[in-house]
User: What shape does this take?
Amino acid sequence: MLIFNCTEAASKFFSRVQKGKVISPLELTPPSPTPEEDEPGDLAEQWLVHAITVQRKHVLFVIHIKTRYCMIFADAKKADVDGFVQRFSERWLYGLMRHATQNDLFHWVDGEIMQQRYKQACREHVFYKRRHRGAQKHIDDIAWIFQDFAAEWGELPADEYVAGRFDAQMNDAPRLSKGHKDYYWPDEEMIAHWLRTYSGQDEQGVQAARDRRKAVKQEIRDLEHQLERQ
Assistant: This one.
């Protein structure tokens, strides 16, 4: 199940007024004060959603609470819940497949299991009005960077491909949060989470995929250094 924990701004974004009555997809009361206190589920994905306005258009920032993997949805349509969920699911899958392709990770991806579990996880969703201080801090940092980029570009990302490139850049930036002793990379943590949850990999397989990812990155750095010396 996709669990979207919404800030005050996101809660207002997903709500609309019809004939004087507020219509909202948000459940009245979340099961727990914080996402971490919810009853754990095998396919329960906790996300924090925040909304701001950039260049007079709505922009949503969605961050995975466990891994801090983020996605940015520019020019979002207000109160279009179904459109958001579909756009979210497609971007999430696209980002993961893009990362797996670039880092030679398909050896650890079981397509049949992945497709079955992915559909199961995204079949149901729920919205709560609930904060998460740590994830919000990272969203605030990303939102500041995004606004700076948008000002430089003079526009918002033109399509999902451009938006996905910005996602990838943010997810390849080291982060530090509670529960982690050292810096970590959200894209690496998300692919590890994905392999465990959706591709049936054990910790040995996950570590092998991490090692391959690091090796590919080193190969790219070595090639770049060679080109610089030529």
Observations:
- The mean pLDDT is 92.
